[in-house]
Amino acid sequence: MGIRQSDDADAQAGALHDEQAYVSRLYHRLDALRRHTHNALRAAHTQGGGGYAALTEREVRSDEHARRLRELSEVEEGLCFGRIDHRGDRDGDPGDTLYIGRIGLRDEEHATILVDWRAPAARPFYAATPATPGDLVRRRHLHTRDRRVVGIDDEVFDLDGLSDGDRRSLVGEAALLAGLRRGRTGRMNDIVATIQSEQDRVIRSDLQGVLVVQGGPGTGKTVAALHRAAYLLYTHRETLRRRGVLVVGPNPTFLRYIGRVLPSLGESDVVLSTVGDLYPGVRAGAVDTAAAAVVKGAASMADLVRAAVADRQRVPSAAGPAASVPGRTGPDDVAEHESDLEIEVDGMALRVGHADCRALRDRARSLGLPHNVARKYFVTQMLRQLALDQADLLDPKWDPVEDPDEPAYHDEAELDHMSTGLWQQDAVRRGLDELWPLLTPQRLVEELFADDAALARAGAAAGLAEAEWRTLRRPPGSPWTVGDIPLLDEAAELLGEDDTEARARRRRAERDRADAERYAQGVLEFTGLFEDGMMEAGKLAERHHDSGPPLSTAERARADRSWAYGHVIVDEAQELSAMAWRMVMRRIPTRSLTVVGDIAQTGDPAGARSWETMLAPYVHGRLHVEHLLVNYRTPARIMAVAADVLAEVAPGQSAPESVRDDGDMPRAVHVGGTGAAGATLAEALPRLVATDLAAMGDGRLAVIVPDARHTEVAALLPDAAADATPEALESPAAVLTATRSKGLEFDAVIVVEPGAILEQSPKGGQDLYVALTRATRRLTVVHEGPLPEMLGRMGTPSPTFSWDR
Ligand SMILES: Nc1ncnc2c1ncn2[C@@H]1O[C@H](COP(=O)(O)OP(=O)(O)OP(=O)(O)O)[C@@H](O)[C@H]1O
């Protein structure tokens, strides 16, 4: 990089002084804008009278003032963090100087005094490199604490383009490295001040299409993806404010870890969710076995769910409904046991012939409607058949023996009336429910998994071997797992809702709403707010239409299973199964998607082995892949250890290059019987944790353990957070499994028994790679058993082992 340091102390002090003056002016302006907005908000609240139009206008204005006030108060820390100097022209006129900050500001004369980091004018601040500086002569990073400028870093691209004074005042230590050396707080911070050019490319990529960001651990994939969300919301405000942005992460702890980044960038219209939380109303609290996870994640589960739904559309059989007959292989196989439907009503045996039942079922299926919607047709037609039978019994209009060809005649209105009456009869409802029940996704999946015969039929239809469908078997009432959620979502699509009444209600509500929206549009045009794009007529109308408090886009989206988002970002995307992708893709019909992950870190047995294969069903080869190659988290000496593991477990993949090489040398500590540390794990671990915590000061530490030893190790460290709960991030030390540490980072990491992590699953090598790459400063590996060969670089500790290092 073109970082230059001048030794002219006076010139540097002068530069600092000048920048302080500019930054003070910015804060002064910020204060004035806050006061102004605050007063405007108060005025809007206190104004009274004026009828509906005035009320509406007032609400629009106060909404906008409140949003602006929130934005202005979020940006206090680090308001301005950079400056770029453009090259002057040939006539000797100086080039433009722009200051870059968290928001854009104008002075009283409307001249720009601060450029929003997402605006096109700020782009050179991130994109310029020594090789491609564009027309920049210098990029300057400003370090501020509270409102004071405490440091300046310069990168000079064209020394000749600077004035003499500027040349003398060049100062700096790389802003990036300073940022990276800060102790961890348990929460991810934004990186607006130090976005690197390869990350900038990711952040500012087009909204449309599928962007895959592939990069090793610590390459800033997550942080770049979050800045991309903020950039997209800024650049495509209209579309995305209405539809919202969804960020999918691997677990609640991770979501809490990243949760502050977007609010700190002033964005709140974003839904953060795990795959397990994407289905409203169901919480996944249990974990599948590895075998069940593989089966549930495979795309063939879509066929299984489809077959399970078809299996609930039955025809009567002698031994009860067809599906309860043992030994049957498919839902249509009824020939040997076929029977008529017979229901006793008021002492009369009403009957529908087997062939009629079958014809009606097939016709209902052929409508191509979801199960619960087609059920309405099936039930109506079956009731009519029963009503016909009942009418014949009550009032025979012809003699079937004398005139077998004479059609019966019954009055339509009378038949309707009888059908309605029959539907009130429990026996009729039960009989028809057995043939074509109203199903919720939860009921369908729960009853399927509790029924060997049903599983065998659906499994066979989906091409599953017995050993595979048997992994799904479980008692009714079992808690839901994350792997169940995409199956419920799939079932919800196939079952649909019989929403005739709800639709009629909605149609009425929509008519009223359209009236309100037309009116609101008029108000917006009248007030000029429409042209400013400050408020949509739809949102405004809704506010007056609904009785409750207005819901934000994010709140509405989160509660609605069928919500279509404007953009979706999937982080740690390598962990999503084929079924989870089906669920995510339903939420983004436009396929405007950012997929972030690292194939080399795939730990889920149902996760991805290649982006192309995993995404092929949805994007037909139209993937745009960006690679991030620099590791900002892990020092080179720790990364070298991890790279050895990667070379063993994923020989085709290469580890990213670390941007720095500082911190302590990683070490292995052998405990137990022959261990050089002369202590058992129970004695050694608390001491190692205490030593690391003392060395870290304020930082965070994680002990990463094999899954099977989590409880035992947590018991050895009573002061550490014992579980990977979101709250664990607040604790100085936490005990985690490798899976739960995914995406997180800590100043110090102690990996317990790497050999057992390696062996705990077919993806154990990837788990170990993840565990080793969580540290920003210190890595210790503690082992009772032999140190795995692939960690040979860490060597055997010397006999003079020291605890205090
Ligand atoms: N340009 C940058 N400036 C400052 N810090 C950065 C920059 N890029 C990344 N970082 C920091 O590097 C660390 C790793 O970033 P991040 O967690 O986004 O990486 P990742 O690629 O998602 O890693 P993993 O795959 O291991 O989860 C974070 O602390 C992040 O803030």
From TrEMBL:
InterPro entries: DNA_helicase_UvrD/REP (IPR000212), P-loop_NTPase (IPR027417), UvrD-like_ATP-bd (IPR014016), UvrD-like_helicase_C (IPR027785). Keywords: ATP-binding, Helicase, Hydrolase, Nucleotide-binding. Gene3D superfamilies: P-loop containing nucleotide triphosphate hydrolases (3.40.50.300). GO terms for molecular function: 3'-5' DNA helicase activity; ATP binding; DNA binding; hydrolase activity. Coiled coil: none annotated. ATP binds at residues 215-222. GO terms for cellular component: cytosol. The keyword Nucleotide-binding applies. Residues 194-635 form the UvrD-like helicase ATP-binding domain. Pfam families: UvrD_C_2. The keyword ATP-binding applies. One of its GO terms (biological process) is recombinational repair. This is DNA helicase IV. It comes from Nocardiopsis mwathae.
